[in-house]
Amino acid sequence: MRAETQRDILHRFFALRQAQTTTLAPELYRQRADVYTDPKRLTAEVEALFRGRPLLVALSGDLPSTGDYVTTEAAGVPLLLVRGEDAVVRGFLNICRHRGGRVASGRGQPGRAFKCPYHSWAYDLNGDLLGQPMARDAFAGIDRAELGLIPVPVAERFGLIVARLGGDEPIDVAGCLDGLGPELADYGFEDYRFFDERTGVVEANWKLAHDTFLESYHIFSLHRESLGPDMLSTPFVAEFFGPHARGVVMRREVTRLLERDESEWELRPLASIFYMLFPCAVINMPMTGHAELWEFYPEPGSPHRTRVTAKFYVPRAPADDRERGFWDANVRYTMRVVFDEDLAQQEDIHRSLRTGLLPEVIYGRNEPALIHHHRQVELALNGDGHARG
Ligand code: FES
Ligand SMILES: [Fe+2]
User: What is the rounded distance in angstroms from the CA atom of residue 228 to the CA atom of residue 226?
Assistant: First the structure.
């Protein structure tokens, strides 16, 4: 992030603090409770949000070298991303053309080929079918060239890897990031190294799980004993980029900057910087210096279950056990706060909403990124969202 942007955010923070307020939405938002529980609504969301538009699926640092692959899942669709010998990232459905097995798992280098564990059909880095061992004439009459892995459109730019689960037009990453691309590029995600990944399925709607990352109002209360002593609930400094948002949550220590010359102001060690990348990914840049990619996808067909994935990246590969231990402790701490505090809360809320006895929930003006996200979801469902990319 440019020094000028950092100073601008800090100035906005101090001005809001002086005025004892926070970034405010123009008006509060009443949300029907059943948007979180209605199966028909989920079907419409999958179509409008997950199947037809570009999704952030990985960081460039997930595939640092040619021949690297990573598997992931977006809205229940298993994906295989590969950096080919030409350094270009390609995406495929991670689904074997024989009978649907997963041809790869985890991440790494596949060696000579991806080999489906079920009957060992083998595919190369371009997704082409190389062999069907032990099959002899069993598949005679079908041209092997027809049986490559099914490609999905993928594009890489600004250190991000973006895919779309339908259509075959190329993806315009800059267009779909609505001006946020260069700021994200400044972090150099291609140089971050994957450190750890955690996945959990929570009993709550995907938007409820995602909502926890969209406001800091709850920090003083829900995280009273964990984040509360270090982080400020308010002011929350929010800015919007098309359907996306940047939200900055400051550490209490930030006030020390007021004693220093502005030329020394540096945001990163004093804040958690969140990028909410529509529709359901969050990049969090916490003050510890690592990067987190969070994804919130509904489990197939269910408005009541969400697969939450957290991927942790470190600025460079850990040099020794001490460094590894430091990052491990960060992962454990983050998972404890998010799963035991945030997501446990959202599971309770989801059970309450499923009763059908609460007609609506209310998003306050002090939860502007929450309001923004829900408005953007409505726009996309009404066919009036950002159709670019
Ligand atoms: S399902 Fe993959 S080889 Fe049979
Ligand atoms: Fe939280």
Answer: 6
Q: Which helix (H) or strand (E) holds 384?
A: none
Residue with tokens 């595939």: 63
- What ipTM did this prediction achieve? 0.98
Question: Per-residue pLDDT tens for 273-288?
Answer: 999 999 999 999 999 9
CB 217 within 8 A of CB 233: yes
The pair of three-digit structure tokens given for residue 140, joined into one six-digit string: 């005679």
Which domains does the chain show, CATH number per domain? Answer: 1-54+171-389 (3.90.380.10), 55-168 (2.102.10.10)
The region, left, alpha or beta by phi > 0 then psi within -120 to 50, assigned to residue 36 is: alpha
Q: Are 183 and 1 in contact (CB under 8 A)?
A: yes
For residue 387, CA distances in Å to 54, 104, 175, 243, 381 come to 10, 32, 10, 11, 11
pLDDT at 111: 85
Q: Identify the CA nearest to 193 among candidates 64, 321, 91, 72.
A: 64
Question: Which of 95, 116, 150 has most ligand 1 atoms within 8 Å of CB, for mutation?
Answer: 116
- Phi, psi at 135, each rounded to 5°: -95, -20
Q: Which residues surround ligand 2, an ion (CB under 5 A)?
A: 212, 342
Q: Is residue 386 over pLDDT 60?
A: no
